[in-house]
Amino acid sequence: MQDLFGRSITYLRLSVTELCNLRCQYCMPAEGICKKRHEDMLTEEEMILAVTAAAQLGVTKVRITGGEPLVKRNILSICEKAAAVPGIRELCMTSNGLRMPELAPSLRAAGVRRVNISLDTLNPERYRFITRIGSLEDALRGIEAALAAGFERVKINTVLIGGFNDTEIRPLAELTQRYPLDVRFIELMPMMDRYVFGPEAFVSCDLVLRALPELRMEGEDGVARVGRLPHAQGRVGLISPLSAHFCAMCNRLRLTADGKIKPCLHAPLEYSVRGQTLEEMRETFMRAAAAKPERHDCLSYDARSQASRPMNRIGG
Ligand code: SAM
Ligand code: SF4
User: Fold this and answer.
1) CATH number of the domain encompassing residue 40
2) Is 42 contained in some domain?
3) Which pLDDT tens digit goes with each residue over 212-229?
4) Beta bridge partners of 155
5) Residue to probe by mutation, ligand 2, list 19, 27, 63, 191, most atoms within 8 Å of CB
6) pTM of the full structure
């Protein structure tokens, strides 16, 4: 599947739920979200049919996301079936890690090859503040469980927030020296109307380069610039949706838990696959790919994303 700008679409981000056991300040409103009617969300069968349609059109990689995928009751069955779809070579997951201690070995056995775990701070009070309800200890236990479960790669996703965790760049990056994992800093994206953060929070990932002068840059890996600290077991990545557009390299579509294909994270365009047959889903994927904009507008504190949904309802 190609879009109108010659980009091959090989990557699908599949959000399996909008619900979450955290309430991160930049992702969800404090009150959480209203639970939708069951019939408004994709069923497991529809999710697998959509993955099959995407695979038939050339998608080879699926990332399971949410909301929090590990609060989904049938998550193991979804993973097992998605991994078994002909053509899917890589099944990955993004999670906050809280339920990894119970689920990591079963996820690995179900065919999940790599996991990204979100962790914005190593300070317990700051963790509680940013997630509103979470405990750092639980998150760290989740990372340890993921490392022990034998995934091919474990990455930490850290949203870089000026005035919040920009003083923690070094200790977070040094996790790559202590553990066989990657740490990726992601610029905060202005997804919602209201934030507790002011304009100073929306900083560039170049801060990481300044905080770590010994970081040896090695090139690019997908949408990340990557480098390595001396004697590190993993890499440090910089993902810069604000300060540097990576739209030219965008090879992905997103499917939301309520069945909408989003051609671009920051555009309001959505194409529904709910209730469709395999053939109809293939057509909808083709239409969504053809509607992929060349690039999204520049984002800043004053120029919010046009996504029309908070992040927990898209999948990151
Ligand atoms: N609950 C899982 C988690 O937190 O990893 C998966 C879903 S979450 C929406 C996916 C990723 O999006 C997380 O790494 C999260 O930090 C990131 N994210 C959410 N809102 C964001 C924002 N406004 N700017 C940048 N990243 C954001
Ligand atoms: Fe939940 Fe992930 Fe959003 Fe945090 S970033 S509220 S863990 S979905």
Assistant:
1) 3.20.20.70
2) yes
3) 999 999 999 988 999 999
4) 116, 182
5) 27
6) 0.96
